[in-house]
Amino acid sequence: MADDQPLAAAVHRVDPRDDVATAVRDIAAGEHVGDLVMRAAVPKGHKVALTTVATGAPVRKYGFPIGVATSDIAAGDHVHSHNLATGLAGELDYSFTAPARRPDPVADGRTFLGYCRADGRVGTRNEIWILVTVGCVANTARRLADAATRTFAGRVDGVHAFPHPFGCSQLGDDLSATRRMLAALAQHPNAGGVLILGLGCESNQLDALLGDIPDRSRIRAFTTQGESDEFEAGLAAIADLVAVAERDERDPCPLSDLVVGLKCGGSDGFSGLTANPLVGYVADALAAAGGTPVLTEIPEIFGAEHLLLDRAVSRAVFDDAAGLVNGFKRHFLDHGQPVHENPSPGNIAGGITTLEEKSLGAVQKAGHAVLTQALGYGDRVREPGLALLEAPGNDAVSSTALVAAGATVVLFTTGRGTPLGFPAPTLKIASNSTLAERKPRWIDFDAGVVLAGVDMASAGEALIDLVLATASGQPTRAEGNGEREIALWKRGVTL
């Protein structure tokens, strides 16, 4: 390695105010990188100190503090858990200054082929979904989906069961949340028809759930205790739904008809530099056209929430969003847990040190779009523009919440990789090319090309093209692998 290798060839600095940069390859101790002489080895994806930082002083990345130095840091040092700690503590008092201006949507001419539903929403798939009120009939739903997939092949886009283990022994708000989520999923535009299976004696009574679904014209439901042969009854109900849904056709729809979920899982040191900003590019284009990007994982915006709150379209939206953040912090504190107990072991191995660092990278997925709504868990999007949705960081729980909120495509960035897929088509976007090359059956898009010199706009346009193709019916890797599931958020007491 040449001693005079330019700094930019070895590390990536996000903002000129930053005290650190991210190593784009493994860097050896003693190596000369620009004007730096490396005082320690720094693994790929980890942080290199560019300046001197005194003990107790903030360390900046993305132009903002990602924590405080726990010992003196010199230029050329490896910056990680041994010399950097979180500065997060508890709830904060947020101050509203002025509403953000919501720009008028501008149609850009891009379209996709979607399914126009009676309620005005547009689906990207025309599937039959099987939901259950309670975990006791979960395997019955799976068996029905398998049989119906063989029986009705080619007549709809697919038949899928989405079982879960809850619905009984739940109380109060916990039970209500389960019911609200299932009702939202039952009304999803990607479902051309929905079969809801109940048992009969569960807490989550079928009639109460159906009462939360105004239009039941494409819903079929029964309790398995009330049928002599629940399997035959299920196949007959699916046959009825297929006969209705198979008449639906794809029509050209504008970009503004898309609702796109924004999610990251298994982040690494490059997530905030490549994959998340690329998704932010898509979110900005979508919002500018009058579409709806949806951001979630509230605990993974702690330390970066100001970047979203400053873009609230009104005082009411600001207050709702601030309430989501502080409410989640209070939930942690009430259970004796610190608000900063994140990142995960995989995140840390990938180079992320503090929750502030992870959060500042994670909010890149929202681009610069104006925040138009804050949604509770199980709520559905109400209007165009960026939505902030209540859900935890857990991949399966938060992705399910995105779909229930109305997302018809999910953009899932990852630096570590995961096979998981969800009810709506889920595109996996690798933060680094090594992952994309190693896991081609998981990864749909390689955002690592940004580090190789492809400019953000070109890569972003390519990702938008992939989103539109996916929305028009092109299967994702997860769909091709049969990876489709839901997970519900269990917060209450179990009897």
Q: Radius of gyration over alpha carbons?
A: 24 Å
H/I helix tally: 14
Distance between the first and last residues' Cα: 63 Å
| Strands, total number | 23
Oligomeric grouping of the chains: single chain
How helical, in percent, are the residues?
25-40%
Percent in strands: 15-25%
If you had to describe this structure to a student in words, what would you say it looks like?
By secondary structure, this protein is of the alpha/beta class. Helix content is 29%, strand content 19%. The protein is built from 14 helices and 23 strands. The strands form 6 sheets. It has a 7-stranded parallel β-sheet, sandwiched between helices. A 4-stranded antiparallel β-sheet has the order 1-2-5-8. The protein has a 4-stranded parallel β-sheet with strand order 13-12-14-15, sandwiched between helices. Helix 6 (275-288) links the parallel strand 17 (259-264) and strand 18 (292-295). Helix 3 packs across helix 11 (395-405). The longest helix is centred in the middle third of the chain and has 20 residues, at 315-334. The mean pLDDT is 95.
